[in-house]
Amino acid sequence: MGGWALHLAVGIYVLMLAVTAGHANEVNHCTAARAKTCSECIQIGTGCAYCPDEIFEYERCDLKENLEARKCSRMVTIESTSQIEENVQIDESRKYSQVAPQLMRMTLLPGEEKEVEMEVFEPTHGPLDLYILMDFSNSMSDDLDNLKRMGEQLTKIVDDLSDDYTIGFGKFVDKVTEPQTDMRPAKLAEPWSNSDPPFSFRNVIPLTKNITFFREKLQGERISGNLDAPEGGFDAILQTAVCQQQIGWREHSTHLLVFSTESAFHYEADGANVLAGILDRNDEECHLTQDGKYTHDVRQDYPSIPTLVRLLVKHNIIPIFAITNHSYSHYEKLHEYFPIAELGKLQEDSSNILSILKNAFENIRSKISIRAEDRPKAVEAKILSQSGTFSEYYKITPGQIGKFKVRLKALNKVGEDHVCKANQVDRMGTLRVKPTTFSSALRINAEVLCLACDCEKTPEKKAVRCNGNGDLVCGKCQCSQGWLGPFCNCSMGASTGSDMCIEPGKTEPCSGRGDCMCGTCVCYNPNQFEGPFCQFDKSQCQRFGGFLCNERGSCSMGRCACTPGWSGDACECPISNDSCLDSRGGICNDRGVCKCGRCECEHSGLPLSPTCEANFQQQLGMCEAKRSCVQCQAWNTGERKGRKCEECQFKIILVEELKEDKNVIERCSFRDEDDDCTYHYTVNYPSNITDKEHRVLVKKKKDCPPAGFLWLIPLIMFLMLLLGLLLLCCWKYCSCCQACLALLPCCGRGRMVGFKEDHYMLRQSLLTSDHLDTPMVRTGPPKSTDIVRWKVTDNVHRGPNHPQNQIKPNPNETIQYPVSLRLNRQYSETLSHLEARDTDVLKREVEDNLSDVFLQIPGAQRVQKTRFRTQRNSGKRQNNTIVDTVLTAPRASYPDIVKLTDKQVQAGNFRDLKVVPGYYTVATDREAAGAVEFQEGVESVDVRVPLFVKDEDDEKKELLVQAVDVPVGMAKIGKDHVNITVIKEHARSIFTFLQPSYTYSRQDGVANIPISREIIEDGRTQVTYCTRDLTAKDKKDYISVDGDMSYGPGETQKTVPVKLLELGEGDGLLEDKQVKQFVMDLSNPRQGAKLGRYPRTTITIADKPEPSVMNFKKSTQTYNTADQLYSIPVVRSRNQEGPTTVYWRTKKASRFDLSSPLKFSPGEMEKNIVIDPRAYPSPIVPETFQLELFDPSNSAVIGERKTTLVNVIDGRGDGKMQDLQKMEYVNQSATSPGGRLYSPTNIKAVATGPKNIRLNWNPCTNANGYKVKYWIYGDPEADAQVLDVKTPQAELTNLYPYCDYEMRVCGYNALGEGNYSDMIPCQTLEDGPGEPGRLAFNVISPTVTQVSWAEPAETNGVITSYEVIYIPIDEDKKPSGPSKKVMIDNPKKRMLLIENLQPSQTYCYKVRARNKVGWGPYREATINLASQPTRPMSIPIIPDIPIVDAEAGDDYDSYLMYSNEVLRSPTSSLRPSVTDLSEEQFVNGKWDQNFLFPGGSSSLSRNVSSSSSTYSHSTPRPAVTNHSSSTTYISGKGGSTTHRYDLRDGGLLKEEVTLRKRSENRHYTDGDGVRDSIVMGNLSGGFLDNLDSRFNPGVPETPSRLVFSALGPTALKVSWQEPHCESSVLGYCVLYQQINGGDVKRIEVNNPAQNSVVVQDLLPNHSYIFKVKAQSREGWGPDREGVITIESAVDPKSPLSPMPGSPFTLSTPSAPGPLIFTALSPDTLQLSWEKPRKPNGDILGYVVTCEQLHGGGDLRSFQVNGNAATSLTVSDLKENMPYKFKVQAQTTQGFGPEREGIITIESQDAGSMSQYSSQSVTKREVFNLPTEITSHTMFSDPFVSSDGMMMMSSRQITESGGTVTRQVEMVQRGVVSSSTVTKKLERQYFES
């Protein structure tokens, strides 16, 4: 083809691309999918169609309406269908549950949603089948006797529940084999006196309606027995479920199974090893004989938990677990895995089993959930209420028809593939929608349509339209290989220019993101870049809530293409109005419009809800607030009658009748005390939307009681006169004494005070404050004042024997007492501002007077933390100021403080401070007391009850609030107490603001308010935020916002932007402008989240922004004459948000006089002034000059360090420098421009792929070529590779993916190389990850396997998830069954437990990793279950890893199973089964630690900023007798550094190698599990302390040591040693922040003698990075870093937890704490240990065994009796002989697992330290973890600091070994002849 034809064809193609680009603005979900074929197009989803016309110049795949508008003559599209096939209407006369319709057929397009109406009916007393399954072991004998006596009561209970019921009974014990059952013949005949032989399960009474037969049959039953504590109840439950006919379950009835026991349970694999030959897994079949006996108890294993869940759901059986307190915790966890189940705490004799049954049935009916079962994977189902709202449970009223909606949605993807690539069984199937208690269901045959286009079946081969180089398929050319273009007319080998690939207005072909081929851009990464010029980035579309396109669309051509049902720039707006529905079903309550799924309410002065309804909180008090004004305006009665009525803000409207109206907010009725009549009124919305008051309509006529007989009136008057005379006499005799008057029964009669409610239920996650306002009411004539004293007691639910109640508090402990008083002064808004002058004056007055009074209490301190507020619902005192303050005093002083406070309050003053009598509160951390006042005419006041919420609270705790007495007044106490229950929920996330207040400048225009999320369990979650006015007003000072903030996995912080408005002209004229503030609240946390420390923050709008402060970073700078550039840093502090500028100039410089601006962009904190000394003609000579900062911009000021001194010194030191420089200067002047080249300028580096970086720079004049040096960040520049190029651009290839590189460029000519440029950094793009590390297996049983794996050696990015596939295979390694796929979204959980595998089956496992680029290759391993060792019998402990059921449907993958318990592993094998190890798992001949500990970190490492240079350093050390070497691997930002130390002949030889650094390779460790312990990562100190200083003279060096001491779970002490400095140290600075980000906090230490600080208010279990640096007159020195974690909870991986593989049960104690050894002499040591973390009962004592590690000698055993004894002295040991010690704890239930320790007492030579005696102790702790590693740490040269902390240097080496071993070699030194170290210091060794 001629050149002109080629250019013409390419030109036409580019024209079509331009047309396509012109339509990019019309992007939608059809075009965004970029379908390549007709079939792919019609499979996209709803509305998509394909145009197969041969001539069609637009997008062929588009919305159907678009193709019609563009005149497509024929379209290919598909439509979905929906049809009801069976619909029998519900008959309410039938007494069983029903649903309608019964059968439907539905087809769906991918992504399509459809709804269907569904009706359900449950009869009032429907049919009920009740089966009681009871434990018949001997310990349940009294329970059986009680059940026999309750036969008649049981009948009555069941009769109340149903009119048509059956009842049955079964019993179980355990498998009749050892060790569960005593197999001696006598015991088999009668295990206990008067008992039946042992059995597994028997169906004693099938379900029957004959209650008499049931009672008679039950009377003949006798107890049986077995040996071990767990019972075989799971066998019984399974048989009860699958034996439908034998048990007698009816089809249309509710099936209840009551399971009663006091023991734990055996489950799958407990019968697979230690039992005699029971190896077959449970076959889930019925095996009952004619008389109901279970026959396969000794033939097959127990069923698993997933199996029970699946079978009970399948057969519609609802379990009710009635469990005694002994085993309640096991079943509390178990019952949560059932979709619906109930749990009740059974009394020891089962006397309350009937009440448990009744309550459980009522609970089941009250929270019925509707589920979609057996749904295909490609179909998602959701059940909604009739109004369209979703809930976990729905209320179905018995006897009434409930209406619901079933919403089905076809998914677009199944796993990672499009839905149409999934198997047909995943795309179609029959799902069943039914309430959990129903047997009948709505069946829906659903199918996702994936049809193909007919035109693809008849392609036109080598079509003329395709120039014979391709096939015409559905109107589009499919080119043959080697041809391109829309008509296949461009050969890939043809050379064409790149002009056609340059976007208009740009200069770079394909935007630098692709290659130009045939005039067409082929993008490097089509999954990220697209467009005719690769100009669009698919990750750069708009986001909403942090999600790209709100996850409701895809990014296409730079815009979001929204899925159907969503719109907006970020797909944030739902098209439907469902979110705008109000409580009546209308849209925005007819008072607003629905925009973008939110109501925009009409402007109103009234607070409205998000749906424009009356605010619920306002509505609660609406009637009461308007009551007094209604009375006085309508009838001139009530407390406001007279002139007070004029103060009412609204006017009532009298009407004859109150009509029904949509504008009515609240209907109110009250009794008028003056005439005993009832009046009625309504509170309505205002008729004018701008009105700020409601309309109040009052009914003219009251409802009065009927008139009495008229003749009674004179009699009543006479009696009243007589009564008056009597009262007058009483008054005279009582001398007007109110106390005496109160003694008269007639005077106090009728007036009562008491609490309004009986009980409050609160959820801790929903609490927004630490108190509850509990109303107290008064009845009777409120004619005078009553004062009521009250008290609160915390944790009243705990009995006297509760463990917490056994711990008596220390009476001398100093605690804080919150105290509240009501001041005799009105509250003003100024008092809410802590910085206001009035607030400060009143605060000092309060604290001075209160302190003078309270200091008479022994040990009391001055009050502090004083705040002011008001209290609503406090009668006539609600405008008085309440003061809250805190008094610190001993705990024993509580009664004295209460008495003193009560006395002073009743006196009305605290010295000169006036208080209102009748109100106070005094609280501790567990109780409180106070008083409230009822003024005359007041009927209700609030008691402010502290809730004492603490982390150590029980799951459900109760507080008791009691009214004690009425010291003033005549009222009697009625309802004298109220109970408050606080339910503690385990949060998966905690939301909080970072600070309680923020300040933003109005000029910024926006306030970005951060919301922090603390992740406890990762996943998605949401929280609601909203703003509220204070002094700042909405739409005047700012624009209010509200909405939901969504967090994805791993996200910890997001910001809410709030727009700030400029001041108006009127505001600018005000002189005394008020501080503008508004608040933002967090509420409604979802998906298991709760609110944290700061659920509310106050935002202050500052009219002027805080200026930036500009300073030189150092006061002096030193350079030499050989330096190519002088870089002088300038730092910017304080406000860093906006841009700012400062000018600089030189002073007293001999060679130049420079001045220039230095511009900072938003967020920039530091910039350099760069001076090129070679750019000026005179020679470079040593000199000193100054730089000065001046003329800052309006947003900045210049700080104290406005000048800096620059010293230029001689760089060669031999006097020849000046001559050489002169020579260079002459040469340059003579040969310029052909002399030495300057460095290239304008260098740009761009990563073009995972392994490529492209550089461009401006060409240098007379350059013959260029050299590019490049190296990995962290490597020395000397190891750089050099690339020689002839043009001003270079392409670096074969680089590491996702790696940081550094580059320099220079030009060269005939005279040699020129100057190199500054360093240019660049990071390569991510690439797909490599295969995961080797797979390891733990075979728990023949049907249960745990698989774990290591992170890929080449992550090539950030790993986001893993996928596990397991397939049964045959001997030829071919699949013998279906494959199962499991997705693990949390990359930290690199483990999976799989249950219900086929026994003796070979499985192939495949694991692959994914990062942002995509999936990596599979790692494959094969394991044969028949050849693997198995584990011993154990108890139900569910590991903290994902668990899947190999035989369950997909419904169960989502909720099985998580826990914090410890995983068991087989003890019969010393190591897990593994595949062959490859070389890539070894590092320097040792196992990679990340590989050895899949699922968690295992080394002590942290991020540090290390230099990219390397150096070698040798430091002399005192003679040390240990001959050892150790290696420390440190991964950090600066690279991975290996330090190797060899200790020989009393000296130290150290060499250092800097390894390659991978970007952001952060690695931190968990602690060792000790409470309030410290996990430290401090790379400085020890051997590195004596490195030569490279800093300026007079500037302090790095502080030589950093030590952390835990003072509690939230506080620590940071200590350091004074650094070396030639001048005096002036002070220190301590900086710290959370390791995962957050605000940097600073502590200034101005006293140079102080070398420690105490840091408070840290978060437990959070890692912090600390930096300490010193200051002298010459400036700040470098900082010392340390990373610490204060752990306040024992981690499951901690050594304090039970060891994996240990045979123990929940009733035995856990392992003792770590073993601590103290050498007393060369042959004697003292062994001590911690008590078990979980004793599970009273410790009777310990058993200690001792033996030589390598055999030989006798095994020695010691018995340590008692709970308190935790130490033992062992003698007659040998020097230099390793011993193994084991310690076990014993309770009444048996022995717990062992704690092992290995110890060697080594003999020591005195050497150069002969004035000291020394003793060396070597200790190793062995833990049977699922992996193998030896962590060896050496401590040397310990010393005691001034604060008593033992300190030493340490190094760690990682080695392979047979077990997981921690070895500590320790040299203990005492003064002179001392050879022991105190226990306190010894503990500090290990805790450090």
Short description:
By secondary structure, the chain is mostly beta strands. 35% of the residues are buried.
Task: Give an overview of the whole structure.
This protein is mainly beta and 1888 residues long. The chain contains 26 helices and 115 strands. The strands form 30 sheets. Strands 41, 43, 44, 45, 46, 47, 48, 49, 51 and 53 form a ten-stranded mixed beta sheet that branches. Strands 106, 107, 109, 110, 111, 112, 113, 114 and 115 form a nine-stranded mixed beta sheet that branches. It has a six-stranded mixed beta sheet with strand order 9-8-7-10-11-12, with helices on both faces. A hairpin with a 2-residue loop joins β30 (553-556) and β31 (559-562). α9 runs parallel beside α11 (305-314). The longest helix has 23 residues, at 712-734. The N terminus and C terminus are likely disordered.
